[in-house]
Write a structure and sequence with these properties.
Bound molecules: iron/sulfur cluster
Helix content: 40-55%
Number of strands: 7
CATH class: Alpha Beta
Oligomer: single chain
Distance between the termini: 74 Å
Number of domains: 1
Order of helices and strands: HHHEHHHEEEEHEEHHH
CATH architecture: Alpha-Beta Complex
Strand content: 15-25%
Length: about 220
């Protein structure tokens, strides 16, 4: 029996996760979606709008991202050379109260790692790295093995970027998990702040960060 086969057999608990996708609905009040970490790291106000106020609008970037994920989210597994791949699998962590669907998990030479697909090119910010690190934390808990690497696949450049799951990245991810938990628990709205990120944000027209800042200053001055 190969090293990969041993590892596959040792994660039979995955079938629980796969077969209980419906339990996501009952879990989601207690568990935070992994994607929320990405949105929070991008902008806490955006995360609040999406996950507390239930607001979402598409723009060019979100539509491209959704169609990319629709193409790759066909549940299934198989081998690519020596590497075993499983697509669109639900991951969860009881320790960190996380749940989310991974685009692709691979097992190569006894090493598990997640691969997250993104539109465009490598981002300027670290929000994608936090998301894939959160997947790695779930994978560690589900397999009982250390996950030292992950990958981000950028569709426009057709390149995989290696993300090392360093202690520093783990700590940043855990701090973001705690911040998102606190946000969802309190429902308290973080103030919108106009930054470069607003230019690509699909919520710009409803958020109007400059107008909100002006109004805030006006109210403070009264
Ligand atoms: S427009 Fe800017 S401040 Fe408003 S949600 Fe988007 S990124 Fe955040």
């Amino acid at each position: 029996m190969t090293q990969n086969q041993n590892s596959i057999n040792s994660v039979s608990s995955w079938s629980y996760v796969l077969s209980s996708a419906t339990s996501y609905l009952s879990l989601q009040e207690e568990y935070i979606p992994i994607a929320a970490l990405n949105h929070y790291a991008y902008c806490p106000h955006r995360c609040w709008r999406m996950f507390c106020a239930g607001e979402f609008f598409d723009n060019q970037y979100t539509i491209e991202g959704s169609s990319l994920h629709e193409r790759i989210h066909t549940v299934g597994d198989g081998n690519r050379g020596q590497t075993w791949q499983i697509r669109a699998i639900w991951l969860k962590s009881d320790q960190y109260r996380l749940i989310g669907r991974a685009d692709l998990i691979e097992l190569d030479n006894g090493e598990w790692y997640p691969v997250e697909y993104k539109r465009g090119h490598k981002g300027e910010w670290d929000n994608d790295q936090l998301q894939v690190c959160a997947q790695a934390l779930c994978l560690e808990e589900m397999t009982g093995k250390s996950v030292n690497n992950a990958y981000l696949y950028y569709a426009h450049s057709h390149q995989r970027q290696l993300v090392e799951i360093t202690e520093q990245l783990r700590q940043s991810t855990i701090a973001t998990i705690e911040a998102v938990q606190q946000l969802l628990r309190s429902g308290k709205m973080p103030k919108p702040t106009k930054t470069k990120r607003c230019d690509k944000c699909s919520l710009y027209s409803s958020c109007l960060p400059q107008a909100s800042e002006k109004l805030g200053r006006y109210l403070e001055a009264r």
